[in-house]
From TrEMBL:
Gene3D superfamilies: 1.10.287.130, Histidine kinase-like ATPase, C-terminal domain. GO terms for molecular function: ATP binding; phosphorelay sensor kinase activity. The keyword Mitochondrion does not apply. Residues 241-456 form the Histidine kinase domain. It is found in: Membrane. Keywords: ATP-binding, Kinase, Membrane, Nucleotide-binding, Phosphoprotein, Transferase, Transmembrane, Transmembrane helix, Two-component regulatory system. InterPro entries: 2CSK_N, HAMP_dom, HATPase_C_sf, HATPase_dom, His_kinase_dom, HisK_dim/P_dom, HisK_dim/P_sf, Sig_transdc_His_kin-like_C. It catalyses: ATP + protein L-histidine = ADP + protein N-phospho-L-histidine. This is histidine kinase. It comes from Rubellimicrobium roseum.
Amino acid sequence: MMSIRLRLFLILVLATGAVWASAVVWTRARTEAHVERVLDARLSEAARMVVSLIADNSIDLGAAAGVMEGAGTETAFAPAADYEHRLSCQIWSVEGGLLGQSEGAPDGRLSSNSSGFSTSDVDGQAWRVYTAEDPDLGIRVMVADTRAMRENLVGSIITALVLPAGLVLPALLGLIWISLGRGLAPLDRVARVLSNRSASDLTPLPDEPAASEVRPLIEGLNGLMTRVASARESERTFTAFAAHELKTPLSGLKTQAQVAAMSPDPATKDRALAQIQKAVDRTDRMVRQLLDMAAIEAEVAEAGEHPASIAPLLADVMEDLASLARVKGVALHADLKESCVLQCSRPLLLGTAVRNLLENALAAGPQGSEVTLTMHAVEEGRSCAIRVRDHGSGIPLDELALVTRRFVRGRQAEGAGSGLGLAIVDLAMERLRGRLSLTRAEGGGLLAELVLPCLSGHVGPAVPDLQASPAK
């Protein structure tokens, strides 16, 4: 890809060339107009001078024509030798007879006009002619110069202007190239600093005085390094916690497998196998939660994910967890008869959050209790509030602000959990620009509320009340 320096160089060269060419065209046009006025004035003055001399009887007709011989030697535009014998004069009678002409004048009549300026082609050459008529003397004096002489004169002036500029052009291009190099030097310094760094060095770039155009780049790079450093730290912490938490169930699996293999007692084997099943279930949930956490942190949207109505989404989650509720002996109820079917921009993310809340509630609720899920619109339909209520032991007040941290479990937590469920919910709400609030419910248990902004809703069919009764 073309470098910025080369691109700017070409742009400046093209712009300079365009301005230069425009200046040459404008100068040529102005010079042509000025030369035309000056030389036309000279023709007019010369013709009137000849008529005046003849009228005053200061010179005869033949001598009057000879006056113009060599008159073109005086010019301020170029050496006289280039323009000698460029003026020609003819004196004609009004009846049409040639009375006299200067040496070098064409044989043909210079102009057919009786007076004033004209352009004519005589003997294959273009002439600019001024005709002065004196009816009293009965003569017409024609003074002319060639168009070629005028064009050569204009060309000489343009050459005198352009040639020095053309000789300076290489120096100008060099200065532009050097100037661009010095102007882009701050970027080169930033590039050198970055190229000399190791992959693990994520410290901010030096906060030194920099050009206003470079400062946003440095600030953006420093911000990126800060985010990358934070992400790497989170990844290291996450990996360490995950390894620690997986170590315990895997060790338990190994121990129980050895007990089952070595024990001759069927009852001991059955207990060992039951413990193995529990450890597998715990490990399975932990792995799934780790995957959920990783996906949410990476903010990876599922392919083909589109905004979806919230109520049917919650109903699907309830249906998926119905069998788990029956196994736990907990009644699972959902009140989703909300006529305003709000929509969520990231339904899979919301589904993950609600699933973890419900799994935690089912794990915390004692056998024979119930877990309820409700949804309603708030803030005039701009947001949605989703509530999950259980009747477990709840969370002490001093731990409510801590349980959303990773791998943190409350003192009264029920069952074998990993401490990731509420952390996943909190992170999902952060990605959805919502919030998670946890409060102790009246009568015992925990009330978890998710409030998130929603897309425009529409009035749709009510979602039927879903419930999973505990196993008999």
